[in-house]
User: What shape does this take?
Amino acid sequence: MKRVEIGDLEKGDFIMVRWLDASELRCSVDEHEGSPEVYCKDWGVYLGVSGRKRRLLLVGKDVVEVHNDWGAVRIPVELVDEVLLVMPRGEVLRAIREVGVLGRRVRLRRFRRDEIERFRVV
Assistant: This one.
């Protein structure tokens, strides 16, 4: 993994984003003053930067293949502490293809009804 700037990313890159999140915590004033930051890490596919009033970093988490609908995290760019490139787009595509090929090669064993152990969950 290497640290990169948002402008250097290509759509489809697999990234890890470390960012500062808003939070609520009950503790003494000293504890609030001592360490007020709460950092989050999100992993996913870089989908771009968008937004009218504020720029938001879009990180894809899952996709519904039938509709090509993406579930994504929207992180305000001002809150991003660092972006790490885990895997460039080309390597991501190759890895996905390899997983797909491996999935087609796996043969599932068929069981006869008398081979299946039955159990009851209480």
Summary: The longest helix spans residues 89-105. DSSP finds two helices and six strands in the chain.
